[in-house]
Design brief:
Layout lengths: L1 E4 L7 H15 L7 E4 L6 H9 L2 E4 L10 E5 L6 H6 L5 E5 L3 H15 L3 E5 L5 H7 L7 E3 L14 E5 L5 H21 L8 E3 L10 H10 L3 E5 L5 H13 L3 E4 L15 E6 L5 H14 L1 E3 L6 E3 L4
Parallel strand pairs: 1-12, 2-3, 2-4, 4-5, 6-7, 6-8, 8-9, 10-11, 10-12
Antiparallel strand pairs: 13-14
Length: 310
């Protein structure tokens, strides 16, 4: 039996970078010093637990005023400027681990806003990254998720459309076209008006774009799939669904303890994949467990083989 981990599964480099920063910081903690992170560093209970064991403590924005000393880490999603202001107590050191891709989007939004543009963001209102992006515009940016919501936008103003980095590319371009069409229609109706200025900036991250297609391909190449993710990861649910569509023999597990030997009967190839919040080490543990379940020493003693249990 061949067990393969999906190469395109797991953390994007922005999250890996944030975790590396967090690990370096906890290791350099002075005795008694704490490293706090604003919100879960990642949507995976196993990874949170591992980092908690090393001294990382998750806090909320409401906890911030009560923190008088220690280090506060800004995670990959970034934060609005107000958070940086609120974390300015004399005993607090801020560790900014905002993903550079997100930081760049924040900077571009700020520039357009400062130049008098109406900023529209295609994203999810409550998502931490979007809160950070909206914060660059003094809370004025308009967040939309569908064509229906274009009505919230004032089409008589010069406008720029950005995207949260993890949204769907196709919808972004549909929104862009709809904006262009509606703006053109306005100009035709009010003949004497100047053509309105509209820009669309595709800020969807290359790390997530195309993930669905790669997962589908990988899933269809294996007899069965084991999908590893936290049960409350929304990205995990979406990707599991895609995986399941491409390969109906897909099993969802949170840890290797949930594997059942019956799934592997008569199977030659097993694929392991996971959400963007699934750590590589967890997928490796699942792989090792499957191999251990089906490990049979070669009777000749020369070679070790993996075979099916019954
Ligand atoms: S912007 Fe891209 S690289 Fe950065 S955290 Fe988001 S998905 Fe990861």
């Amino acid at each position: 039996m061949k067990v393969t981990i999906d190469k395109s599964a797991g953390f994007c480099w922005g999250v890996i970078r944030t975790i590396d920063i967090a690990e370096a910081e906890v290791e350099s903690n002075k005795p008694g010093e704490m490293l706090y992170v604003l919100g879960d560093i990642i949507h995976n209970p196993m990874e949170i637990e591992r980092l908690r064991g090393k001294g990382l403590k998750t806090i909320t924005h409401a906890d911030l005023p009560g923190i008088q000393s220690g280090k506060v880490l800004i995670r990959a999603h970034g934060e609005p400027p107000s958070t940086f202001k609120n974390a300015k107590a004399p005993g607090i050191t801020l560790v900014d681990a905002t993903c550079p891709v997100v930081a760049k989007v924040q900077e571009r939004i700020r520039k357009f806003y400062d130049n008098g543009y109406q900023v529209v963001i295609y994203g999810k209102t409550d998502h931490a990254e979007v809160v950070g992006l909206v914060g660059q515009t003094n809370g004025e940016a308009i967040v939309i998720r569908s064509l229906e919501e274009i009505k919230k936008v004032d089409l008589s103003r010069k406008t720029v459309l950005f995207s949260q980095t993890t949204m769907d590319k196709q919808t972004f371009y549909t929104l862009k076209e709809e904006f262009q069409k509606r703006i053109k229609d306005c100009v035709v109706e009010t003949f004497e008006e100047q053509a309105r200025e509209f820009h669309a900036k595709d800020t969807i991250c290359g790390q997530v774009f195309g993930r669905d297609k790669k997962l589908r391909e990988f899933a269809s190449q294996n007899d069965i799939m084991v999908f590893v993710a936290g049960r409350n990861s929304s990205n995990g649910k979406v990707l599991f669904h895609i995986c399941n569509e491409a390969n109906p023999r897909t099993y969802f597990v949170e840890t290797e303890a949930e594997l059942e030997s019956g799934w592997f009967r008569g199977v030659n190839t097993v694929g392991i994949s996971g959400a963007t919040s699934t750590p590589q080490w967890l997928m490796e543990r699942v792989k090792a467990k499957i191999e251990e379940m089906f490990y049979t020493p070669d009777p000749s003693g020369e070679q070790e083989v993996l075979s099916h249990h019954n």
